[in-house]
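Revision sheet: structure tokens.
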Amino acid sequence: MTVFKIQTYKIPSSSQEGKVYAVACYEGAWVCSCPLWIHRLRELGEDCHHIIRARRGFVSRRPEITYCDSPGRRFDRGQFVLRLPSGDRSTRERIQDALFLLDYGYSKTETWKHLDLPKTWTIERMVRYLQYFPT
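Predicted:
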């Protein structure tokens, strides 16, 4: 008899209070019940922010965002916060901040709102910007 080990998680919606999405992992393949993943990202082979949160272990909560004087971005596991540098930010630094937040399970909508990014900025454009202007 074969035993299948499926890990399942309930991840709260970032946009609708009280709504929860089911995320599951079986042999390294991740799935989510959110409409974005079902109708768009699944076909592209990409993860939604619910899957990213589950992969990182941020199931019931995720790190808060705080600003500090030290350069660079980092996850402070002890304080359970994402630390971003404070002060005026160049375009490159703002893009890096956005990609950092996305990588830690913040949704695109939350990230753009938190960092006050133009709605015309897309993830693809930001990645291309970093490729064309490496330093």
